[in-house]
Design goal:
The complex is a heterotrimer of chains A (488), B (632) and C (109). Chain B has 632 residues and is mainly alpha-helical. Chain B folds into two domains: 413 residues, no CATH class; 72 residues. Chain B contains 26 helices and two strands. Chain B has a two-stranded antiparallel sheet with strand order 1-2. The longest helix of chain C has 32 residues. Chain C is elongated, with a radius of gyration of 18 Å. The chains are: A mainly alpha (488), B mainly alpha (632), C mainly alpha (109). At the A-B interface, helix 6, helix 11, helix 13, helix 16 and helix 17 of A face strand 1, helix 5, helix 6 and helix 25 of B.
Chain lengths: 488, 632, 109
Amino acid sequence: MIPVLLIVVPLLAGLISFNLKDASAKGWTLFASLVTLGITLIAVALPEGSKQLAVNAEWLTALNSRFSLNVDGLAKILCLLTALSFPIIFIATWNEQYKKARNFFGLMMLSQAGLIGVFLASDALLFYFFWELALIPVYFLASQWGGEKKVQATFKFFVYTFLGSLMMLVAIIFISQHTRDHSFSIASFYGLKGMISAHDQTWLFWLMFVAFAVKMPVFPFHTWQPDTYEQSTPAVTMVLSGIMVKMGLYGIMRWLAPVLPIGTYLWGDAVSTLCIIGIIYASLIALRQDDLKRLVAYSSIAHVGLMCMAIFATTESGIQGVMIQLFNHGINILGLWIVVYLIEKQFHTRKISELGGLAAKAPGLTLLLLIVTLGNIALPLTNGFIGEFLMFNGIYTSQSTTYNVVFMVTAAISIILAAMYMLNMVQRVFYGPVNALTEKAVDIRLNEKMVLGFIAVLIILIGIYPEPLFHLTKDAVESVLAKMYVKP
Amino acid sequence: MSKFIFLVPLFPLIGFLINGLFRKWIPKSLSGLIGSATVLASFVLSLLIFFEVKEENFHPVIISLFEFIHAGKLSIPFSFLVDPLSVLFLLIITGVGFLIHVYSTSYMHEENAAAYAKYFCYLNLFVFSMLLLVLGSNYVILFIGWEGVGLCSYLLIGYWFKNQEYSSAAKKAFVMNRIGDFGFLIAVFALINQFGTASFGEIFQHAPKATTGFITMVTLLLFVGATGKSAQIPLYTWLPDAMAGPTPVSALIHAATMVTAGIYMIARSHVLYDLAPVSQTVVAITGLATAILAASIAIKQNDIKKVLAYSTVSQLGYMFLGLGVGAYTGAVFHVMTHAFFKALLFLGAGSVIHAMGGEQDIRKMGALRKYLPITHITFLLACLAIAGVPPFSGFFSKDEILAAAYEKNPLYYIIGVAGAMMTAFYMFRLYATTFLGRFRGTADQEHHLHESPAPITFPLIVLAILAVLGGFLGIPEIFAKNAHLLGHFLQPVFAGRESGAAGHPVDVSTEWMLMGVSAGLVIIMVIFAWMRFSRKPELGEPAGFGKWLANKWYVDELYQTIIVRPLNAFADFLNKVVEKNIIDGMVNGAGRLVQYGSRQFRYLQSGQVGGYVLLMVLGIVILFVVQLFLRK
Amino acid sequence: MPINYYIFLSVALFCIGVAGVLTRRNAIIVFMCIELMLNAVNLLLVAFSKMHHLALAATDPNAGINGQLFVFFIMVVAAAEVSVGLAIIAMLYRNTHSVDINFLNRLKH
């Protein structure tokens, strides 16, 4: 029952919001997102395998596809991230005025429903359905509200992701035709066990990987991201990079690596190489960005590249690290976007070169940004460290590739580069003398301080005591790893 | 007692939280008090633990607090190791740390209340991180402290963040440290991969089973980490820039404690280094080269803090030399004595800067002996100690390292003594131009000259006593049997080591000779510098070779040219050319291709019905031909 | 009569229709040619239908009826098409005073 509620509550809330007055939509959706958060917390608290956490009903009988949802550790942590993010986003951008606000908030809730659906679906067709359901509201959100070039940027984003989705659909249909009972259920997908030849697994792997790679994004499928992030309105950017990015990683862990283990094993090195190029490439580009949003976007590409790589390392440590990092990265990047949003709102610019000296005028913002930055550069005792430590360790100890040391060492250069570009940004925006623009700066308001403070506390708490997250995902790690192909 | 070890880092953490969270509300006096009291509490507790550890029958204990990271078979507990080495460092950190906190209450008094509280909050966080570093019972906990002190160093160097240059120095320090950490992390992963654990005990136990190649690689990588943190070639350039921070910070972080983290780490990992002679040689040569290079630069610096900074780099080089030749006790001994006299020098310099109203250029000082008697005396004692004049503390510790170096390779000894002579020269150049001769500042400055208040002079006096007497903790065998208290105390950690500690590195007559030569040369150098600079304290513009030294061998410029600029140019190339034109160009090109194609196809859509029909018929004919004639 | 004759006749008719559509410029004549093509098909359908009926009448009295059904459909559709098409042509003539199809390339716009 709970999985259905998790999807239906935001869905209904979104539909209702379309019919509300513009003024009341904001409060309503905040309320609904908090309700969703409450349900998620219940779901997270329930033990794994509880009957309450699974739903299985008739859906498209003709196609042998069922409406089946299941909440396991991986789903839990991502639902928690999604459910936590939306209230945070709403509160952080509370003072923002939208035209046609009811549509805006309605679409936001619809996208939440789609996202949660993606994480819960345990039927491939249902998964695809939610995948698109999440995409479509975001398409409207990005193309209706945002900067000057929003239509152009959104079009690019849409074509990219839609192309990827179609390739995934082809692969899903092909695979389902090869399962024993010709169904789309995840159990049948997992039951394939070498029934698809290595040759077929190769092209199926790439079809699905491209779909997920576009979402993450992995080099060279990333060019939609900086443009879209730059043009979208802050709340949408937060959804896109905080949560939607995780869909790709989630997809690999749930629908790609365990379903096509041979393909994953054969092409792991190729993917890791792409990831490494992406990590270094994006870090270097971030070094020379003058636009705050683009800087954060490229930093995200680098971080996600590392996460993708760690999955392909096929080690317990690596996958555990990814699952933790899914949550941590979401929280950290949300914090960064909120800071960027607050700066842009106050000074109407995102140009690093035009800012400076904010620390003197806005100490609260500076402190909170500093903590988020430290999380982002994976300083020990922040959440980022736990994830990155495990991932690097996983890559180093990987048995599925002969280049594990080379991969790890090259990827680890990013910790130096990350420190460089993040601290560069901190220095040029927050330190130094105040200029004409930042002369009149004021510190952040209470709601903003609360949200950022909450994020900062999460960053440090998880950094010191990550045990609850380990506990939540431990079984999921084992179940993913058990289905992947490890060289004997 | 040692089961309460977790309280040692906890006290400063509490101080950090109070000062950090309530910095807007608590008054200045209280935040200073909280900052100092918490460190004092840790010091007292450390003392109690020290007395327990000192007992003959003490065995190292591991106090596990909670599970920190675990995935599969890998498990990294958050646990502390109590043994003589860590307790010695506890005492140095909390003891010197406390004195510097006291000093800071007065030194930082001109800051407003919130900034003042922020300062103590950072300082407490630093002490906390440093304690984690030395207490950690595995490489990961050590790494937490390792990066934590780097963060505090970053925050405190950039404490006066309005100055863009200062925040650049802070960033440089952090990034340089990160380069070192990169090596360190890889070493940690290699160790985990090999041994399945990160804790010291198990790794050292199983280390002999690993191949020498592996151990050499790991130790070299660890050493990369140490060069970052402890400012050795090639990553030393951040430390002189780090003098941008408040002077007590330079004393605590960039002289007494944080920069010795690399020495601690290598001393802790000495089991691994003993297995890798190649790494030992690399450590020794790097240390020696750094000692000489930094000393040569210090000769021509005119900023009082820069001289001390390069002297720190140089002394750290000696410690690494000690580690490299296997004199672990000697290196740790030098860490201790160096903490005393270098903290004293920095605090003395702070007192001078304070009196001079922020002036740091020694060319504008002079004759301060009259105005700052306590600072003068303590500074002089510290100079004698660092120069290695017997019987001050620096003599004993440096001698121990040099004797061990001689045993390994006489060349090390000769270069080391040359470095010691340079040390004596630049220290007394500094002393003479600052305190002797006549005053060369403005009349206004002269008018304001005064001895600093008690919170500043008290730490000076205490540290001066320690700097003078500290050496007697490690009296060499040839003076008195079994008088090397420190060596005896550290015996359980460095057990089985012949050289350094209590053993006989070389025979007695040779040792007397070595000691005599180095002490004699140093004393000659002291007298030479004293005579020269007290008579003619005006420092001319450097020319010729001196210009190279004054400009620090142009190393910063070299790094700028061969690393920073190419990296930026490459990043620009990626950003402007590859990203915009190649990758995005390919994507947009695909879109443009579709548009172009459809524009071409539009010409077929002429609107002439006849044309359409003709195409249709042709199509049908082609289909027929294919169907009937071409298919097999 | 062998089926071949019908086939040849209807192919001939169809080709005449195609040639007419392709070469003539008068819309009315193009229309007539289209009718010719449709009727060529009708002829073929009826011929085959009859052939099938003769062959299978013994077992299935309704054999081959489908073909004739189609013919009716085509006739109906053709009639409807003619009525619409002629109306369009009439309107065109009224507006442009021409029924020359080469002159009418408005579909392009």
